[in-house]
Amino acid sequence: MKEPQLDAGFANIYQADAKMLSVSATLTTGFRLSNGHTVYGPLLIVNNEPFSLNIPPPKRDKDGKASNPLLLLDSDALALLEIVDPKPELLIVGGGASISPLSPSARSYLTSIGLNVELASTKHATSTFGTLCEEGRNVALLAIPAGVDL
C-alpha cells in the first residue's frame, strides 16, 4: 500500500481555497475578502495572496488636514512586488475616500521594476481590481481603507 505524501509547502492562512481572491466589501477601517476573512488597515493583494501592510495611519495637522499615508511608502515597503513571480502587469492603488498620490520615490521605484500604476479611490480601485482579475489579467491591489479621507 502506498504511503500518503504530505505537502511540505507553505499554506496561505487567509485563503480557504484556490478561487480568485477579491475584495467583497470595503469597510471604513479595512476590507472583507471573498474568502470570508477581514483585513483591517492597508491591504496588498498580489498573485491571489493578501498581505496586511504596516503603513502608519494618517495624522492631522493643526488645520485638521490629514497626511497621506501613501506618501510614506518607499522601495522597501514595495519590494515584494519585485520578487513575486509572475510579476503583475499593473498595480492599482486605492487612496481611501479619494485619489491620493504615491511618494515620488515609490512611483519611481515601481516604474523601475516595470510596473504600471493606476491611482483611484479605494472603492473604485477594488472594483477595477476585481473586474481585471475576472478577465484573467495579472494585477495587484494596494489600498488603504475607504474611511481614510485626506
From TrEMBL:
<protein>
    <recommendedName>
        <fullName>NADH dehydrogenase [ubiquinone] 1 alpha subcomplex assembly factor 3</fullName>
    </recommendedName>
</protein>
<dbReference type="GO" id="GO:0005743">
    <property type="term" value="C:mitochondrial inner membrane"/>
</dbReference>
<dbReference type="GO" id="GO:0032981">
    <property type="term" value="P:mitochondrial respiratory chain complex I assembly"/>
</dbReference>
<dbReference type="Pfam" id="PF04430">
    <property type="entry name" value="DUF498"/>
</dbReference>
<dbReference type="InterPro" id="IPR007523">
    <property type="entry name" value="NDUFAF3/AAMDC"/>
</dbReference>
<dbReference type="InterPro" id="IPR036748">
    <property type="entry name" value="MTH938-like_sf"/>
</dbReference>
